[in-house]
């Protein structure tokens, strides 16, 4: 390669390489979205060649700038950039196998499929929330590690769809409030959505909207590289506010007949149009071929921060090993041991005190012990701090300019809270948890799903987990949320029955590196049931016999959370009648399901079964069998004192005992 | 009552009556939210005495102004207003039994509990979306009926929490785009949320934010009745844009020590503080007592629009009976018969054509017939019109100023779409349906829940209902959504197996006056299975034997939607081996569950069972029993061509046949 040849490579050549790869890959797959990558190729080229701090050879560099493709349908933009800049695993074969089973180049970017894919996107607006979380993580870690170790930007590419989704407003508003000056959103302002012109559905002045949330804003011609570079430069210099750059682009730029129309959005251009685009763009190379000198120019960009990476490595080498490890994963072996010790201590205390506590209170007490031993633990709540017990004496509040804190007031923004927690977990260095009411898990369900799909350790503290919350009534009483969450693959749904189970569930959640957890907790007080605590974490197998009658079982009572104490009371009543009832607590169905059949059979017993849970039956037949009886909710709840509601809906020890009697006789 | 005494009643007296009732009721219940009603009492008094077009004696007046309390936790504001103005069923006893089991005065306003409660609120931001739907319904019906019959305002009271929720942005943006000039949002700008000062979490300039979406905005002192009245008057005169009035208020206004603090938000003030508030407000009456002259002044306000109501009644009397009926319920007996006829016709056509169609396409063909016979049917989509088949040749687009149309481009705003559809259904006169992808049901789940809780006929068209969508990959492939939706009480989840079932499901959905429906439809083509169509709607019982082998069953294959054809193929394979397999199609579990046990047992059969559905197993054990075999998804999907995915995940006729063989042998 001649240096001269390399020097002759223009911005246009480099951007066209992205466009060609995008249209060719979509055409080959006969499926996909060429419009966005072709439209944003200029902006992306400017960003990756002039600004983005990354080293393709070291994709895990903790202090790299993060690039989030929130408009995930434009995945070929990202794959093209990763291939061109020389990321590992992203060879041309992957580009050729776009959208094929088993390839790294899935229809939408999938975290974990290849280095350089910072997050899974596609469900619109999520990436904006992830980016806010990453930018927040950067500031939190910067406050702990200093500029030499953590000091990077987060860039997010968002489309019209991302900005129409409500989650974007929550994220924008939160970022503006926290003045996340190192967050830069590049808005692909192409004025086209799937249904056609954005005029069909939206008339917002996006600059004014972002400005209303305290953002720096700018608008540029997204096909003018100098203007884009200047806007990014300016945005980087505005460090007291996040920045929006609205990039006016032409969707499908280069397609002779289709550019600027919705027909380029989500379908292949067609062979003829692709040929026409080659001509119009001046790109005379065959499909999937990028000329050596253009590829070399891109590879040079992929390595241009090598010196910065090496400076960083030298600085990081001076950190002690623990601090260095925690930058990536805050729960190493030492912290894990400290968690075990803290949990053992609080279990002993709970047992000694024997107090009746709501599990939201138990959880707070557990956190009181855990926060000091897990430095990367960052708490928060969606404006229900006092109600959900997420704040401890160990916390201080994170505010704009004060990132030494470890507690975030997310505001009434459950959805952005979930997406930001995903972003923090993905960033590394942080174990995020935050709380709201269980019924409002519905408000952040798309983010919960992504926690599970991306296998991120994100802990959702969700209290007021049944009609036991009382007077707030059916809008606030979850009845179907437990089932709906248990249906999500790769998600641990925990429902501890007392303080000790609560401590054990926290232990599991913090050590589940690749599984998010929902902690469902009560508003109302619960008696201590685990009066003989053991060193073992009994919740770790998901379910266990809390009461095993001597001489075998006549009936097994299955339950979770607040209803386990009803089952215990029922067992006592039955015992008085000579009916031997086991009580099985099932704090986590998913963990129980993962045990071997022998264990499951032993716990469930071979005799008749009754289940009690203040929620709908949906899903319970798996454990109950066809002849078991379920005591629970048959529809929505009602407003009234909790005790009256339990009676009204027939969820009582008497009802459980009666059901058991009916099966035994 | 002396007229003079009545004339002497001041604004302050009337507002204080609300405050006193609110603090007394919360104190009595020892639970609730006094802060908002006390803070917004002045604004509400101005609205109800000077502007709101309502007649307490005729709460169902179709052309009444709608008042939506989006900040539903302040329910006592609404209950106090309903009592004071003399609505039926809202006597002082109801106020005294606030938040008690069985009372109309639930913790949050519950639609249907008493006249005058226009919608169920509490989950924040939903009311804003409902109000947008109501204001849209008003314009749609105005375009059809004229000013004499439909011409009213929609007022929505929203708090900080409502405006922080992302759904509010979607709703605001949609309302601004459609220029809903008769929508007026009263923002309770009290600068307090549950965690404390709103400064903790939010810094938005709300006026600028609404202005960015094309709203008229104003800010007033919410305790200055003249200023509030002027602002409302101005807002009513701005008819080319919706209006926001930010009312600066003091939360808990009148509480001597607690006003202006978060401690008034969600807890009783306490006896002492209540006494202090009585003194400070100059309200010397005992709890729950409103002096006669003040009550009389309120009752006068409740009847002040009697003449307007009578003018309206006279105009409405001139309508033909059908038009008058459709103003409330667009599906009367005649329309119902027309639906049956249209469905019978399209079923016959489907049978005659025998074409392979995706159910999203079948659905579009069904709608093509239904739109002309159900004038109140208003379609739409969240920017997936072409993909979900919601638009027909019978539609024209609703635009700002053009409300004769019947199709709404909701934009990428699934959540506001759901909430707006709830608002339209609640308004009366409209049967709303709209579409997105099934996986994005998660984005509007809180609104779906409220459709069910409020028993509203809202039809969600949700396509791309499995891995059958192919290359878009796991972010777009629902695996747990069917289970999650089936878990919601009072919701019909339909999954038709072919064109004919699709038509039958539409028939059921449109006639289910008190049940919302999720139509889950495929992206991929499906063969016609119901080759011998009957006049009967076989889907109406939720499940039925599609194939009943002669001479009894060896095995029963259960399935839904796109997998029914796999079961049919498996049955053929098994038949060739001498194994008699029945195939049961289960398009709607909820309807099947509502049949008597004898029917269910007959359909399910007493022999071994195999179920096949391209989704997680969660919930299937109810029909399968412990020994049945489930063929489906065990986790998230993958990106690739649909046919390959079905093979990859082992969801094939061969797998079904093998499972059946294993059970029969």
UniProtKB/TrEMBL annotation, chains A, B:
SUPFAM superfamilies: Thiamin diphosphate-binding fold (THDP-binding), TK C-terminal domain-like. Transmembrane segments: none annotated. Binds 1 Mg(2+) ion per subunit. Can also utilize other divalent metal cations, such as Ca(2+), Mn(2+) and Co(2+). GO terms for cellular component: cytosol. InterPro entries: THDP-binding, Transketo_C/PFOR_II, Transketolase-like_C_2, Transketolase-like_Pyr-bd, Transketolase_bac-like, Transketolase_BS, Transketolase_CS, Transketolase_fam. Thiamine diphosphate binds at residues 73, 122-124, 161, 190, 265, 440. The active site is at 414 (proton donor). One of its GO terms (molecular function) is metal ion binding. Its cofactor is Mg(2+); Ca(2+); Mn(2+); Co(2+). It comes from the Bacteria. It catalyses: D-sedoheptulose 7-phosphate + D-glyceraldehyde 3-phosphate = aldehydo-D-ribose 5-phosphate + D-xylulose 5-phosphate. Keywords: Calcium, Calvin cycle, Magnesium, Metal-binding, Thiamine pyrophosphate, Transferase. The record marks 33, 265 as: Important for catalytic activity. Substrate binds at residues 33, 265, 360, 387, 464, 472, 476, 523. It is an enzyme of class 2 (transferase). One of its GO terms (biological process) is pentose-phosphate shunt, non-oxidative branch. Gene3D superfamilies: 3.40.50.920, 3.40.50.970. The keyword Glycoprotein does not apply. Residues 357-528 form the Transketolase-like pyrimidine-binding domain. Mg(2+) binds at residues 160, 190, 192. NCBIfam families: tktlase_bact. Belongs to the transketolase family. Catalyzes the transfer of a two-carbon ketol group from a ketose donor to an aldose acceptor, via a covalent intermediate with the cofactor thiamine pyrophosphate. Homodimer. This is Transketolase. It comes from Methyloceanibacter methanicus. The lineage of its organism: Bacteria, Pseudomonadati, Pseudomonadota, Alphaproteobacteria, Hyphomicrobiales.
